[in-house]
Structure formats: C-alpha cells, structure tokens
Amino acid sequence: MYKDKIEEIKNELKDLFNNINDKQTLENKKVEYMGKNGKITLLNGQIREVPNEEKKEFGMAVNEIRNMFNDGYTKTLEKIETKEINEKLNSEAIDVTLPGTKLPVGSAHPIERIIETLESLLMSMGYDVVEGPEVEKDLYNFELLNLPKGHPARDAQDTFYIKGEEYLLRSQTSPVQVREMLKHEGKDPIRIICPGKTYRRDEDDATHSHQFTQMEGLLVDKNITLGDLKGTFEAVAKKLFGESRETRFRPSYYPFTEPSVEMDISCFNCNGKGCNICKGTGWITVGGAGMVNPIVLKNCGYDPNKWNGFAFGFGIERLAMLKYGINDIRMFYVNHDIKTLEQFDRREY
Q1: Tell me, what's the pLDDT at 139?
Q2: What averages of pLDDT result for each successive group of 10 residues across the chain (349 residues)?
Q3: What gap in Å lies between CA 177 and CA 107, rounded to an integer?
Q4: Which residue of 116, 127, 154, 286 has the fewest CB atoms within a 10 Å radius of its CB?
Q5: 115 and 202 assigned to the same domain
Q6: Could you tell me which residues are beta bridge partners of residue 308?
Q7: Is the separation of the CB atoms in 312 and 287 below 8 Å?
Q8: Which CATH number covers residue 147?
Q9: In terms of domains, do 279 and 307 share one?
Q10: Nearest-5° angle of CA 275, CA 252, CA 167?
C-alpha cells in the first residue's frame, strides 16, 4: 500500500512546480509536502508500519521523493528570484545621459600630507621607513643616546613615565634609531626615517602640545660628512617650500650628535628681508640635526673609528603650520569637517 502512496506523490511532483510563479505559492507547496503534517513528512513517519525486510527499500523511496521536491523547490525559487531581479532592473533603469550627483569626498589631514611628502622624497633617496613602540624604555629613549640619568638636557624632553623610571612615553623617535642600530650589531650601513607620535610635558598653547608628531632620519655609513647632511636638508626644504628656498646651518647642542646644528630656511613670506613670521631675521628654524655622536655609535654596537653618520629631526606640526599658514597647533587635534580639510587638498608643483 505504501508503494502506491509513494508512486502517487512522485507523479504529483513531476508537474508540481511547472505553473508556480510567485514565492507565496511556492512556500504553500513546501508546507503541503514538507511541513509538520506534509505528505512526505507523514509518509516518512509510516516506516514503523513497514515490515523489517522492506524498511530499507521504503527509506530509499522516501528519500528519492524528498530529493525530487527539494530539487524542484530550489530551481523554482531561483527562477522566481531571477525574474524579480530582472523586473526590478527594468523598472529602475538609470538614465545614463543625466548628470551624476557629486558626492563630498574627504581629504588627507595636513600632518598626513607632510609625512607622505617626506616619505616619498626620502624613500626615493634610499631611506627605509621604520617604526617602533610609543611606550619605551628609559634605556632606549635616553641612556643609549648619551643622556644618562641626571643629565640636564633631559629637562627639555621631560615626558610621562608609565612604570617607575623604567618605562615612559617616548619624547622623540630616536629610540627607533637605537633599536635599528642594535639590530644590525655594528655590521651594516643604515639609512632610515622614523615617523611617529612623541610626548613631552609641555604646556598646551598655540605653539606647543604634550603630544606631537616627529620624523627623524638616520644615516650610518663610512666617510659621511656635514655636506651630505646639508644636501639632504636642501632637498627636503625645496620639496616642501619651493625651489627658491635657501638653507643654512647654525651651531647648536644635542647630546646625541656632535657637531650639532639648527636647520633654517629662508623666510618664504619676506624672502629674507625680515617680517613678523621670521621675527625680523629673514630665517625660520625647521629642525635639528648633526653628526651622530661617537658615544651613541659605540653604545649601539658601531665602532666610531670605522663608522660615522648623521641624524636629523623635524616636528611635523611645525612644518605643516609653516607650509599651510596655520597659527595654532591645537587646530591639528580637533575634529574636522570636510570643508576644513579640503582647504589643503590642492595640487602642488
């Protein structure tokens, strides 16, 4: 008797899906055949009444009609959905002859623009970009850079300590240079730039911030001179501020370089005549640099009798303030809308 019922359902399934054209009708058929009280579901429950020697044959037959239903259901559902999509596409066709709607597009932050410009230039000169942790050891941030505990030059870089006197927020990106030199164990030349956030306990005002962005550079090789450093600085100055910029070095002091220099550019506002921007001097200081102190080379595994090099550092916010005419450093750290940032979205030649 169950064979007749199976054959009956099988015959129904052959033509069941031919005239179904909407999802609701399809779902109704699914409930009719595969629901809790559906024809196939109830048939499967009759296996208890089938003699043991026929149970295998019965199970295979029920599986066959279940697969028939599932195959038909899936194909019909795909057909209905394809039809719906095509109808929607036809009814919502876009007139490509109409002018498009211009969507507002964001712009890079001034700090990011300066970093990308410097990275592009210096990478073309053979430098690699290297990054390091912002939470540093006092050993890397000060001691190996010729700034032992108690050194008076630490006062200018007073920072925030995390755990006792061992861990701190780095006051410069120079620790990245230290780590890189230690990694090379005094065997290889180095040419790197190190961009990143730095921290110092400065008062927050129009020209200072407790958090700011630095980019430092380090070149270690043989027979390097201040002339190599001057050429590198000139390339940076002209890239950022125009080919007409003049540059100069002034003697200065940093514990990690000897000799040390301040890097100045001719004032782009008055062309060296003297104005309020350059405080009447005709020059603007944009960074510090110098030849790597032999003590630092030795501390980091390099023989100062064989190796030498130079290091330089820029405050990215300072460069951006000069380049874009921004008079308050705090402007970089507030929320900006698109209108504010698009002021800096311009092509430069």
Answers
A1: 93
A2: 74 82 87 83 76 79 85 89 86 74 78 93 95 93 89 82 86 94 94 94 72 93 95 94 90 93 88 80 91 96 95 92 83 74 64
A3: 31
A4: 116
A5: yes
A6: 221
A7: yes
A8: 3.30.930.10
A9: yes
A10: 110
Q: What is the pLDDT of residue 97?
A: 78
260: left (phi over 0), alpha (psi -120 to 50) or beta: beta
Side chain identity at residue 338, one-letter code? I
246 falls within a domain? yes
pLDDT at 349: 43
* Pairing outcome for strands 167-169 and 135-137: antiparallel
Q: For the range 55-60, what are the long-range contacts, defined as Cβ-Cβ under 8 Å and sequence gap of 24 or more?
A: 58/2
**Residues 21 and 132 placed together within one structural domain of the fold:** no
CB 242 within 8 A of CB 201: no
- Quote the pLDDT of residue 347: 56
Q: Is 164 among the domain residues?
A: yes
Token pair 């030795």 is found at 298
pLDDT of residue 2: 65
| Structural domain contains residue 97 | no
> What is the pairing mode between strands 190-199 and 128-129?
parallel
- Which of 36, 59, 91 is at the close of a domain? 91
- Domain-located, residue 149: yes
One domain for residues 29 and 131: no
Residues 312 and 167 in one domain: yes
Report the pLDDT value the prediction gives residue 297, as an integer from 0 to 100: 96
Same domain, 44 and 132: no
Joined together, the tokens standing for residue 48 give 């208890």
- 73 shares its domain with 114: no
Q: 120: domain range?
A: 110-344
> So what's the pLDDT on residue 166?
87
Instruction: State the pTM of this model.
Output: 0.66
